[in-house]
Amino acid sequence: MLVDAHCHLTGTYLEADQVEATLARARAQDVTGFIAVGTDLEDSRTVLALAVRTPGVQASLGVHPHEARSWSPEVASALEALLRHPAVRFVGETGLDWHYDLSPRDVQEAAFRAQIRLAKAIGKPLMIHTRSAPEATLQVLEEEGADAVCGIIHCFSEDRAFASRALDLGFYLSFSGIATFKNALAVRDVAAWAPADRILVETDAPFLAPVPYRGKPNEPGFVRFTAEVVAGLRGIPAARLAEQTTQNLEALCGWAPSS
Ligand code: NI
Q1: CA 38 – ligand 1 centroid, Å
Q2: Cβ atoms 9, 35 nearer than 8 A
């Protein structure tokens, strides 16, 4: 049994009529749990509806840094109402993306801080997106007291120094297809070294397909390729890694797929 700790199954990411077939292919690979992630208010509504009606799917709802310019008091209160649903396990994805800069940096930071406060107010862990802003991301997490709820550094793509500070805050590190890329030396180093009880695996589908599907559209079933590589880096059987990461997700958010 394997859990994909972060995937996109809605809206512009996956056609609605493809969801069941995509999840069926994943289940055939023994991937039975899926954290489906919303990236703005409208997408979050769609993700929650999917989670409510689909066995093995739970939700992470928030406003992605790319969409941070859509943040407003009205969005915040509508999102908060959604976040209280029991099928919602995480707040986000939220964070900072200074690579694409699709929303102004100060706007990203304001939406990020607001979502950390929401997570603390309702007592659910965070789903963090960070790209090309490692120091600023850690600083915001530290200043806002994000260790009160912890969460996931999704698609981990930083180094040991970043990982150490994230781990000190109680965060879990989720490894994506990047860990299967031979030139991703720092990420592979962290995947080999990180504490067993703080690691997760994900696809971030439809992005970042692992080897041997690199460059192709990604889907949740492919998480097994990432899990096999991370297990290899750690020198443990893939089945052990699958068991450990499923336990870790349950320890963090209180949910694991039932079969
Ligand atoms: Ni994502």
Answers
A1: 8
A2: no
Pull the structure tokens for residue 216.
């192709």
Q: How far is CA 212 from CA 12, 51, 174, 237, in A?
A: 24, 29, 19, 19
Q: What pTM was estimated for this model as a whole?
A: 0.97
CA of 171 to the centre of ligand 1 (A): 17
Give tens-digit pLDDT for 246-259.
Answer: 999 999 999 999 85
The alpha carbons of the chain give a radius of gyration, in whole angstroms, of: 16
Q: 31, 13, 27, 22: which is closest to 223 by C-alpha?
A: 31
β-strand partners of 20: none
- Using the mean position of ligand 1's atoms as its centre, give its distance from the Cα of residue 240 in Å: 26
pLDDT digits (tens, 9 = 90+) for 151-196: 999 999 999 999 999 999 999 999 999 999 999 999 999 999 999 9
Interatomic CA distance for residues 16 and 193, integer angstroms: 38
Lowest mean pLDDT among 8-12, 49-53, 136-140, 173-177: 8-12
Three-state secondary structure readout of 118-155:
HHHHHCCCEEEEEECCHHHHHHHHHHCCHHHCCEEECC
101, 103, 104, 110: CA torsion to nearest 10: -120
Hey, which CATH number is domain 2-253, 3.20.20.140, 3.40.50.720, 3.40.50.150, 3.40.50.1100?
Answer: 3.20.20.140
**Distance in Å, CA 93 to ligand 1 centroid:** 7
Judge contact between 128 and 102, C-beta under 8 A. Answer: no
What spacing in Å lies between the alpha carbon of 189 and ligand 1's midpoint? 22
Question: Where are the chain's structural domains?
Answer: 2-253
